[in-house]
């Protein structure tokens, strides 16, 4: 369907979903798992950004921090406090993983906001890997830490006995839907925001409403900056919540 | 002809799926509004509850995202 909009030439000049097409960076052969695509490029740039911020920024370890160092310290302290608040003291062992997730998603989201950039987190393939890693990791961790007691997560002991089997069914469904909602929330938000900006950009070709649409793009862009951060935050805090469920499965 | 009707159905379905997003909007607004009314009654307790606020918003939003996904699937995948 995306191609039809192109060939007719009556609608938008460009399709709002075109920006999410995965293209090989060199040449245009078929895409294999080892092909270097624009997703690879922007994920690598995100990693470079993380290294620049966290490794280079904290290299000098000044008592009076430079700007980069204070940002790195702020991010570290923010996530550390979040893990501690949500999972408790014994969850701090898993802080590095949560921090990795957060900082990578933040960088991928923000780099995707640059004009002509590509947002890796707008693809379900990327976020699903992260969400499945969290889901599998948390499930295995729950069984390793609590043994069969982890199944107590599905057996709501505080509910009346007659209701418990029904609640158990609902809990099981909601448990297995977690990786789906976890990944789609991030990908959907990033994709929707960028597509809306592109739709407004398409209206800018009409002279009469061009100023209006540019104002709308500016407003949406501001919202997107907020959304980029909040979705990274939400992804991380839900990881913490799932981690807490694995460590303390009792309701 | 037959393909046209199928495609029309897909487009109508995609439009109908967007109504689910309205429900998510109501839900998110409900969470945030109730948080605000609670926070104005007891501002000192509000700061500690922002994490809960975002978790609540995320769960309410997830269902809207599901309907958005259904709309996208109908538009581009089916």
Overview of the molecule:
The complex is a heterodimer of chains A (251) and B (78). Helices cover 66% and strands 0% of the residues of chain A. Chain A is mainly alpha-helical and 251 residues long. Chain A has one domain (2-247). In chain A, helix 4 runs antiparallel to helix 8 (210-247) and helix 7 runs antiparallel to helix 8. Chain B is rod-shaped, with a radius of gyration of 18 Å. Chain B has a single domain, classed as F1FO ATP Synthase, CATH 1.20.20.10. Helices cover 92% and strands 0% of the residues of chain B. With 78 residues, chain B is an all-alpha fold. Chain B has helices spanning 2-41, 43-46, 50-77. The mean pLDDT of chain B is 87. The relative contact order of chain B is 0.20. Chain B: Pfam families: ATP-synt_C (PF00137). Chain B: Keywords: ATP synthesis, Cell membrane, CF(0), Hydrogen ion transport, Ion transport, Lipid-binding, Membrane, Transmembrane, Transmembrane helix, Transport. Chain B: The record marks 61 as: Reversibly protonated during proton transport. Chain B: This is ATP synthase subunit c. Chain B: It is a multi-pass membrane protein.
Task: Pick out its properties.
heterodimer, A: mainly alpha, 66% helix, globular, B: mainly alpha, F1FO ATP Synthase, ATP_synth_F0_csu (chain B), F/V-ATP_Csub_sf (chain B), lipid-binding (chain B), transport (chain B), transmembrane (chain B)
């Amino acid at each position: 369907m995306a191609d039809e909009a192109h060939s007719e030439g009556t609608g938008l000049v460009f399709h709002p979903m075109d920006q999410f097409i995965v293209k090989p960076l060199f040449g245009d052969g078929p895409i294999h798992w080892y092909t270097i695509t624009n997703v690879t490029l922007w994920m690598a740039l995100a990693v470079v950004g993380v290294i620049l911020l966290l490794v280079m920024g904290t290299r000098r370890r000044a008592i009076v921090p430079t700007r980069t160092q204070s940002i790195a310290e702020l991010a570290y302290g923010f996530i550390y406090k979040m893990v501690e608040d949500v999972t408790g003291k014994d969850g701090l062992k898993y802080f590095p993983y949560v921090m990795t997730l957060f900082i990578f998603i933040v960088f991928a989201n923000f780099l995707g906001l640059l004009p002509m950039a590509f947002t890796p987190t707008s693809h379900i393939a990327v976020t699903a890997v992260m969400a499945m890693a969290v889901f599998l990791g948390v499930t295995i961790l729950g069984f390793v830490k609590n043994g069969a007691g982890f199944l107590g997560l599905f057996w709501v002991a505080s509910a009346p006995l007659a209701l418990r089997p029904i609640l158990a069914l609902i809990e099981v469904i909601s448990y297995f839907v977690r990786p789906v909602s976890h990944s789609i929330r991030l990908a959907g938000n990033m994709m929707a925001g960028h597509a809306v900006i592109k739709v407004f950009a398409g209206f800018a070709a009409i002279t009469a409403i061009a100023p209006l649409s540019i104002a709308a793009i500016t407003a949406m862009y501001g919202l997107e900056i907020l959304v980029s951060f909040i979705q990274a935050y939400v992804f991380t805090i839900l990881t913490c919540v799932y981690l807490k469920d694995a460590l303390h499965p009792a309701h | 002809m037959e393909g046209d009707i199928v495609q029309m159905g897909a487009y109508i379905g995609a439009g109908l799926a967007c109504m689910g997003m309205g429900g998510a909007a109501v839900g998110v607004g409900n969470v945030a509004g109730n948080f605000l009314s609670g926070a104005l009654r007891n501002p000192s307790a509000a700061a500690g509850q922002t994490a809960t606020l975002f978790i609540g918003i995320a769960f309410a939003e997830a269902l809207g995202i599901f309907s958005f996904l259904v709309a996208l699937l109908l538009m581009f995948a089916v």
